[in-house]
Amino acid sequence: MQLTAPATRRTGIRDADGMAVASFVLGLLGLLVLNLFLGPTAIALAAVSLWRGTTRKGRAYLGLGLGVADLVVLLAFMQMDNAVSWSI
């Protein structure tokens, strides 16, 4: 007995589109705060959304780039501060 409706192709694409937008937002937010956690999360969401065939490829690639930029910013500030966190 099946309790839920079977997933359709459109549901999977809509989920992938949501992940692409989420990766963009988290990557953008990660430039300001919690870049150690939000950067890898943005990268993972972008990769999964691209793998699932999102129609919002631009947002997924931006999320991927911003996630990488989060980690680069963190590394740059860690080199300047000699700490795992950074402050202004």
TrEMBL record:
Transmembrane segments: 20-48, 60-80
InterPro entries: YqfX-like
Alphabetically ordered keywords of this record: Membrane, Transmembrane, Transmembrane helix
Domain of life: Bacteria
Name of the protein: DUF4190 domain-containing protein
